[in-house]
Amino acid sequence: MADSRLIVALDVHSMPDVRALVETLGDSVSYYKVGMELFYRVGAEVLTYLHDQGKSIFLDLKLHDIPNTVAEGLCSLMNLHADMLNVHASGGYEMMRTAVERVRGKAAQDGIPAPKLIAVTILTSIGGDDWKEMGFSQEIREQVIRFASLAKKAGMDGVVASPQEAVAIREVCGPDFLIVTPGIRPAGADINDQSRIATPSAALQNGASHLVVGRPIRAAKDPKAAAEAIIREMERV
Length: 237
Ligand code: C5P
Hints:
Layout: E1 6-9, H1 15-25, E2 31-35, H2 36-42, H3 45-52, E3 56-63, H4 67-77, E4 84-88, H5 93-110, E5 116-120, H6 128-133, H7 140-153, E6 158-160, H8 166-173, E7 178-181, H9 200-205, E8 210-213, H10 215-218, H11 223-235
Parallel strand pairs: 1-2, 1-8, 2-3, 3-4, 4-5, 5-6, 6-7, 7-8
The chain binds cytidine-5'-monophosphate.
Residues 9, 11, 35, 60, 120, 123-124, 160, 182-183, 192, 194, 212-216 line the site of cytidine-5'-monophosphate.
């Protein structure tokens, strides 16, 4: 029943909460995202648990520092079974290129598959007003596409972007580039703090390869039913 294009955000704070959600969702969900709020509290234990459960893991720590620090930081995360890791594209071309080179080099040396490396473009919580307030004059969309092209040029496997920008990224970066989209809200769901959002089917139609969904599943009265409804909607596209 699981659809590996659906990644559920495990934004909880303890191992008992992780186990409860993963057990509730059972075979309906095969891919989980571990972000900083969980990883900084429980550390590697959560990845070992998910790996033992046969789940795929996106370790979403959004590294952002000078090229050597990011590349070494990623290499330090490589023994944790993550299938996907990420950095901020605003760290620049050289940072992304160095990350790709070192991570692939280490994977080859250790004889393990290289994790997918993706770049965060502009956070989906940032709307037009925030953007202007930060002093940027070009459109968010334009900058997202610029970051996506830069990530592709640096050899990254894909980007994290809003579903609203997926069409343009797909056009510019081609069919194999991963486009991981948070900001997914089924029709009628609470928007929370997200800004540039889309429904699951619209995100896929726009060219997303993976959907990251947190609160619409986690906060639902019946999380498994909510996940299955999203999967049914995805499979109709
Ligand atoms: O609860 P919700 O569905 O909004 O969760 C979205 C998840 O995706 C959160 O874990 C958030 O940190 C993450 N994310 C995001 N925007 C990005 C990158 C990651 O919302 N650009």
